[in-house]
Amino acid sequence: MKSLDPLEFNQYIVNQAREVIIDYNLIKPKDKVAVGLSGGKDSVLTLYLLADLVDELDFELVAVSVDEGISGYRGEGINVARIIASKLDVELVEGSFKKEFGYTLDEIADLYQSACIPCGVFRRYLLNKISNELGADKLATGHNLDDEIQSFLMSFSKADFRRFSKFGPKLDRIHPKLVPRIKPLWKIPEKDVGIWAVMNGIDVHFAECPYSNTSLRAKVKNYLNQLESERQGTKISILKSFSKTFNFQKKEIIVGQCKQCGEASSLNICKACEMVEDIKNRLK
């Protein structure tokens, strides 16, 4: 097997990300871009790539980390995020479930079939809220090719076609308080992200979340990896096939504000506030 050339591989990674950023106009001059930085390989690569493009594309960069409150796991990731942000001279702003909602994920994980249910709601809420408070024009996440097709197949299996409008490398701003998300790693396979980190000696948090095995995503991920091992190119073929859905006319979503917290919501009460009330009732 031919060994990888580090310079060629790194250039491939950069080219893939730059192609997505340019082709889909993810970042405009003078934008302020917040990166969701967990300390894992995907978010760290996203920050490295964007930090290298700051001068070329003329934008401002900041990082946001969220402490979900997962004992023996999240602390290491947050520490890596702090080290990487400091190394790249990028401001890091931190938030936490405990401070914002009154609970750590460990305290409420057993209340649900999967801890990923409250984690997803609270994490999305907090990343958006902090990014908006920072005046960010875009929120860059570390979603790679594998993440995207996993999400697509999960929505497809549930016939949740409304979520199709949320796929793709870029989302539009549909409310002043909702920061549009961008995905620079959209065409980069998860395996290649891991290779990049190891090949360059980047100290990232490789540990899997202890709650991830309870999620549907974990099962879909294993299935796709098995398919890819048997038929190389399956993942990129899936990405190409569902990319055609981006041409569908997107249904207009009417977004207002949550009556409790004031954050953007398509309902009178946002999912985060609704979940906090649900948790209180379950703990009674």
From TrEMBL:
GO molecular-function terms, A-Z: ATP binding; transferase activity; tRNA binding
Membrane-spanning ranges: none
InterPro entries: CTU1-like_ATP-bd, Ncs6/Tuc1/Ctu1, Rossmann-like_a/b/a_fold, TilS/TtcA_N, tRNA_thiolation_TtcA_Ctu1
GO BP terms, alphabetized: tRNA wobble position uridine thiolation
Highest taxon listed in the record's lineage: Archaea
tRNA(Ile)-lysidine/2-thiocytidine synthase N-terminal domain boundaries: 32-163
A GO-annotated cellular component: cytosolic tRNA wobble base thiouridylase complex
UniProt KW keywords: ATP-binding, Nucleotide-binding, Transferase
Binding residues for ATP: G36, L37, S38, D42, V66, G142, D147
Annotated Pfam families: ATP_bind_3
Protein name: TIGR00269 family protein
